[in-house]
Write a structure and sequence with these properties.
The chain has 107 residues and is mainly alpha-helical. It is built from 4 helices and no strands.
Length: 107
Amino acid sequence: MSWYLLGVAGLFEIAWAIGLEYSEGLTRPVPTAATAVALVISMVLLAKAIETLPVGTAYAVWTGIGAVGTAALGIVLFDESADPLRIAFLGLVVVGIVGLNVTGGGH
């Protein structure tokens, strides 16, 4: 259950990171509010997951999900670079996330 919570927390991390772009420096009320809500949900779920997962593993997976998801959406939504080397390095982050999950992250 903790891994599931951590995965959902990572999805909400993507949501709040993307929300920052749409909030235009936190100047637009609706995107800013949505960003804040996503941030709180992400943190609460991360905190819940850390109750049974090692903090270092959970944080690495959470940030990895957020980094890969945000970078992927940046490519799709904001026309950011899809350079093959950039994609390859994002793939390495995914390998790390999967590796931490498969090994149980130290538990």
